[in-house]
Amino acid sequence: MSIRAVLFDKDGTLVDFHKTWAPTFHALIEEVTGKDWTQMLRLSEACEYDLENRTFLPGSRAIAGTNDDFIDAWVEILGLSDSQAFLREMDEALGRFSLDHVSPFDDLIHVLDRLAGQDIVLGIATNDAEVSARAQLQAMGIAERFPHLYGYDSGHGAKPDPGMVHAFCEAARVLPGEVVMVGDSLHDMHAGRAAGTRTLAVTTGPTGRDVLLPHADHVADSLTDGCFWIESLRT
């Protein structure tokens, strides 16, 4: 089937994960602890974040997972009682703090322009919260490029489950075989394959080529290189 739509992951795919989220998490941890160093260390350990070096540890659940992967631990550390209310507060706060740091890759607009010129429908499926993702797209001036956006809390589940991919296919009125799922993690590749899409892995995130290669139809070192591969599927 010819490709009619592309569904992107966001973090590590459209924006630089570490440049965006490493300083954002540091600001959030300072905020919720009132800069209490002992509590800051405990929160950092719970989400596998290196507080002193302001970076995520390899394999951190925060890299490909969702905020609720570590929020229960934070609630216990902070002595709170309502984890769902705190999760909603953190989703909003992370989106707000990230606006000072969101770092799109240099070739993002070029790639979006190329795909738009071919009438390819674009969407985003992210394990970030929907409110956070929408705020970042607005800040980057590209919200209108993506008529379909799904977060882990949009009602379709989180990756690696294929719910967001199925929702995109239905909304965009395309078959899974007409879609390329683009992402930088195994969660993205597994979600795409489970839904029946083509899968394009990019090495612009924390996961290496050797890890991604067995799970992707193609691996590219940049969005631009990935765009060339997508275009080859339309000829």
How are the SSEs placed, and which strands pair?
Blueprint: E1 5-8, H1 17-33, H2 37-46, E2 49-50, E3 55-56, H3 61-64, H4 71-78, H5 83-98, H6 108-116, E4 121-125, H7 130-140, E5 148-150, H8 163-172, E6 179-183, H9 186-195, E7 198-202, H10 209-212, E8 218-220, H11 223-232
Parallel strand pairs: 1-4, 1-6, 4-5, 6-7, 7-8
Antiparallel strand pairs: 2-3
Helix pairs in contact: 1-5, 2-4, 5-7, 6-11
Q: How would you describe this structure to a colleague?
A:
The radius of gyration is 18 Å and the shape is elongated. The longest helix is centred in the N-terminal third of the chain and has 17 residues, at 17-33. The protein is built from eleven helices and eight strands. The strands form two sheets. The protein has a six-stranded parallel β-sheet with strand order 5-4-1-6-7-8, sandwiched between helices. Strands 2-3 form a two-stranded antiparallel sheet. By secondary structure, it is of the alpha/beta class. It has two domains: 5-16 and 104-232, HAD superfamily/HAD-like (Rossmann fold, 3-Layer(aba) Sandwich), CATH 3.40.50; 18-98, no CATH class. The N and C termini lie close together (11 Å).
Largest sheet strand order = 5-4-1-6-7-8
Secondary structure: helix percent: 40-55%
User: What distance lies between the first and last C-alpha atoms, to the nearest angstrom?
Assistant: 11 Å
What would you report as the Rg, rounded to the nearest angstrom?
18 Å
Low-confidence stretches: none
Beta-strand residue percentage: 5-15%
Count structural domains.
Answer: 2
* Main sheet properties: 6 strands, parallel
Looking at this structure, what is the CATH superfamily of the largest domain?
Answer: HAD superfamily/HAD-like
Strand segment tally: 8
Instruction: Give the C-level CATH assignment of the largest domain.
Output: Alpha Beta
Q: What structural class is derived from the secondary structure elements?
A: alpha/beta
CATH architecture of the largest domain: 3-Layer(aba) Sandwich
CATH fold-level label of the largest domain: Rossmann fold
**Run of helices and strands:** EHHEEHHHHEHEHEHEHEH
